[in-house]
Automatic annotation (TrEMBL), chains A, B:
Any single Pfam family the record assigns to this protein: Glyco_hydro127M
Coiled-coil stretches: none
Name used for this protein in its record: Glycoside hydrolase family 127 protein
Single annotated GO MF: hydrolase activity
């Protein structure tokens, strides 16, 4: 049965241990790299940056002054959350277990008698507790602590973290709950955290407080700040807002919380508001890579169709937040488009933020870097950096990757739905019967997905397989027989008895595709982008001959694009090869008469263009890159 | 004789009273509006904003706390400078004279015993004087005071201002001169101001200090700040820099000072550095309107060819600074391209910053405003505002407009050069003889320029008339006879005896022209812009029928563009009419397959497109606007 559009909670997440991703697939490789490299790297950097020392100071240990951002506690909590998710794997490193235990012990000491916990305010501004909610990030940090505790609880680790989190949450309920202060945090996060805490504990006041935070937002409690109230999404109540605005991470974290509150309080009007904002975000303000944010000044969404590839802010945390929001929309509605966007943002914006070594990260993820790019500072670095003075992104990546297996599939009363394809095994129950789906696939390098399905019951149930929106002409075999593959609402729904082990082979054809920008997107007019399957491709200067500048390359959109699985580039299993031309600019003048001389040159030199997956760019020689390639209209 | 490329000081400015612009021409109208509306408005706003009150407090009058930006003194000084220029006109309002006298009296009182003068540091941070040069703007404010005093001296007004300025300048020489502190200001301005003071006083230490500030810059004295040392142009000495970088106003003010120092110290190497940076700025980083700055975050130049029309920062002060810099380059070299850029920036970026009422101003001057633009805050307002919390631009416009007559012509040993055409009269001397050139013209609405030339000597001298780079096929008549019009290096040079009054008629044909962006400019690819003479034109939503969005309009580049002098739009003497089509977007999807459905629709509705001068946009109904119009390639 297809989920009903208006339903709340159409799908349910699987338990943490239901899915295991294997390292012979890309998703499993990412998880493994995260465990082996990124997570230990974060732990080291927490120490080096002083973030852990700040907490020690609040715990009465050490006397170094506060260092780093005033919300650096959140780096600790996000790393703690990532470690907790990882601890659910028996193969987790003992040092990680030690880190969690030691940090939990530290937090117990740093927590004040009344439950308050924030190393910056405790040690630097004790008199201003709760007085600067617009920029203080106190509730934001509290939210990340709560998320860490929820993760630990689900992973069966460090139960003392839940005690710390609940003491803090109880303080929040007392202070900000009904009858308490009317206040909201300048940076959303507490909303979704409180709902998760409610789910874990069943304690209703947490949910009520989350709902209160959602409802109080949009009434000007935060003031104008530096960028106006829309920056904080405090200009309009979310139920009335028609557009995503302001700081992209704030907006997207808020919307994750909004859906959580809507689902748990059965508030269809609130979910409708989220749907409306989703339409605005994904129809007018999303980069091809799934990234969000078009302005560096306030790390913000821009106007509709303002999608500059070069100055895309496209913050890593916003990409993660988009995945979180879409996941919640998917659970609430079952709509395939949310899973499509999860896939897009995961394989492009999120994946591209981490270097192949797992120890260097992007904060901003532009779709173009020019020759002569001033990439020396943290605003838009030309290559991934090991850490940032505002280090929100690296540990955010760590917590997402450590919990990635939780996002690939869901369940409902009728069966199991697979949304993201990765090699691994899913074990769940459907109406009391054990079911198991083992997936073998080289996705996204190949569109062939082999599933072995079995169940402890002959009762029929439905295995739903997402057919990505980019896919035309998928084919299906069941036990070797070709069967009709007609997706409904974005899913192939196979309803049958799986009592006998069954081999299902889904084939998603993955030719190279050219996509165009919407005609209202000014910044990429006259360009096309190369994609294959869920992957956006890009050109890098390093793949061009030395005498050709990336700026002067044009795409011959009429030439076939070849898929090459044997290009032999390091870390890059599949490249695309397109036809192109080189249009050397005629004069130094910026504004020649129309048409330009370059347009009139009808025999430009031809060149083969090698495109690599966007998420792997910048892993060889750092240099110019572009996703959107100008099309040679006369070529 | 054409000026030699390597010469220093090829041309000389005329005395302040040499040129009088008449209000039957546009330049004269701007000056009149400035005197009647903008300048009195600035005086009122100085009071309302507290900027004058700050100075009163420093003078021991009143006890209100400091309000506004810490560099608000500069608003006072710039208004004072504007008023001083205006006082050179006998028709100046007595209230303006009173303002200058009262403000000068106030500054005498506010100045400290040792000559220090800065109301913020005196009243708020007395212990930090000169300690925060990176952001303090102390030397910047000092520079504007000096500029005001120089203006007053040249206008023969308020000589006590020169005393105040010299006391402060002498303190700077003592503190920062040879043997003193190595320091530079985070915001250049003092450099050009000190050279001007040297020119006015002949006191060499002022020039030496200006040179020292130029030479000390680029050695990291300012630290990293928030945006890195390139923001302040402190990453490389100007003699080594190959690119304009960072905050555009800072960079351009610095370069004005650099040329001043180069000219007065006969430093050709330093002038070469300015030439090199000019090439970078004007070949890769200048908007079609002559504006500079592509990034809002740090109000900065972007990478080469990063020229977004929508997020053009294009600060009004940067446009003014470009005019100042180009003027100095013109004087130093005689090169026509500098006068071309003066004209471009004056008639577009500078002129557009002021509303027709003279009392509303843009801070940022984008080349596109979208439907749905979030124009509510000061960052990129959708319409001109009466004042800004950082109010640098309005009084900067006032001082430029009040001194505009000083920029239209120059002299050298051989004659007189006219660079900007405005109705009015020029009186000067050439080799001891009086010469007079009276200009009648409706420029830029018409390209016909009628000059009446006379001299008190039969000795031949050269009248040079700039032929703008946009002009093809100019014609010339002398006393009714058509004569050959062959410009050399951008100027028609008429060498003859002018002892008998002579009628010269120069005709610069002004058809509508389509210009293209350089092929490396990504943000406006596939677009053309309409221009006529020096004016850039734009489309406004208000001129489209209600059911057509500006975003969906396409230009038919093959259709003729008509010049209409009778469109009857308020304030707009000449409109252009082009052929266009309407391409309604096919689907809500942001990234359809290439080519888009819109491209395939071969019979889009046609529409006539009315274009208005960019500098007059936003004077009717506020709404979307665009300079660069997508070309319908299939239309």
């Amino acid at each position: 049965m297809a989920p009903t559009a208006g339903a709340i909670s159409a799908l349910r997440p699987l338990p943490l241990d239901a899915v295991r991703l294997e390292p012979d697939g890309l998703l499993g490789q990412w998880q493994e790299r995260n465990a082996a490299a990124s997570l230990p790297h974060c732990v080291v950097r927490l120490e080096e940056s002083g973030a852990l020392e700040n907490v020690r100071r609040a715990a009465g240990q050490g006397d170094r002054g506060f260092t780093g951002m005033w919300f650096a506690d959140s780096d600790v909590y996000k790393t703690l959350e990532a470690a907790a998710w990882r601890l659910s794997d028996p193969a987790a490193d003992d040092r990680l277990r030690d880190f969690v235990a030691a940090t939990a012990a530290l937090l117990i000491k740093a927590q004040q008698d009344d439950g308050y916990l924030n190393s910056y305010f405790t040690t630097v501004k004790p008199d201003l507790r709760w007085q600067e909610l617009d920029w203080s990030h106190e509730l934001y940090c509290a939210g990340h602590l709560i998320q860490a505790a929820v993760a630990a609880a689900r992973a069966g680790a460090a139960p003392e973290l839940m005690t710390v989190a609940r003491r803090l949450a109880d303080l929040l309920v007392e202070r900000f709950g009904p009858g308490g202060t009317d206040g909201v945090c300048g940076h959303p996060e507490i909303e979704t955290a409180l709902v998760e805490l409610y789910r874990e504990t069943g304690h209703r006041p947490y949910l009520d407080l989350a709902r209160r935070f959602v409802d109080l937002r949009g009434h000007g409690l935060l003031g104008d700040g530096r960028f106006g109230p829309a920056y904080f999404q405090d200009h309009l109540p979310v139920r009335e807002a028609g557009e995503v605005t302001g700081h992209a991470v704030r907006q997207l974290y808020l919307l994750a919380g909004v859906v959580d509150v809507a689902v748990e309080t059965h508030d269809t009007a609130l979910l409708d508001a989220a749907r409306r904002l989703w339409d605005d975000a994904f129809h007018t303000k999303t980069h091809l890579t799934g990234a969000h944010g078009s302005r560096h000044r306030d790390e913000a969404f821009g106007d509709p169709y303002e999608l500059p590839p070069d100055r895309a802010y496209a913050e890593t945390c916003a990409a993660i937040a988009s995945l979180h929001w879409n996941w919640r929309m998917l659970l609430a509605t079952g709509g395939h488009r949310y899973a499509d966007e999860m896939e897009r943002v995961l394989y492009n914006a999120v994946a591209g933020a981490t270097a192949v070594d797992g120890r260097h990260f992007f904060y901003s993820n532009p779709l173009q870097v020019r020759t002569g790019h001033d990439g020396s500072d943290e605003d838009a670095p030309g290559q991934r950096l090991p850490w940032y003075s505002c280090a929100c992104c690296p540990p955010n990546l760590a917590r997402l990757m450590a919990s990635l297996h939780g996002y690939v599939a869901t369940t409902d009363d009728n069966g199991v739905q697979i949304h993201l394809y990765g090699a691994g095994t899913l074990r769940s129950t459907v109406r009391g019967a054990d079911v198991e789906v083992t997936t073998r696939t080289a996705y996204p390098w190949s569109g062939r997905i082999e599933l072995a399905v079995t169940a402890t019951t002959p009762e029929p149930w439905t295995l739903s397989l997402r057919i990505p929106s980019w896919c035309d002409g998928c084919t299906l075999q069941v036990d070797g027989d070709v069967v009709a593959a007609d997706p409904t609402d974005g899913y192939l729904r196979l309803t049958r008895s799986w009592g006998t082990p069954t081999a299902v082979v889904l084939d998603l054809p993955m030719p190279a595709r050219l996509v165009a920008p919407h005609p209202r997107v000014d910044a990429t007019r006259g360009c096309a982008a190369l994609t294959r399957g869920p992957l956006v491709y890009c050109l890098e200067q390093t793949d061009l001959s030395e005498d050709v500048l990336l700026e002067d390359v044009r795409l011959d959109a009429s030439a076939p694009v070849h898929v090459d699985e044997h290009a032999g580039l390091p870390h890059i299993p599949v490249t695309l090869t397109a036809g192109g031309t080189v249009r050397r600019p005629p004069t130094p003048g910026l504004y020649p008469a129309y048409p330009t001389t370059a347009d009139r040159d009808d025999a430009p030199p031809r060149t083969a263009l090698t495109a690599v997956p966007y998420f792997l760019w910048g892993n060889r020689d750092p240099g110019p890159m572009r996703v959107w390639i100008p099309v040679d209209h006369t070529g």
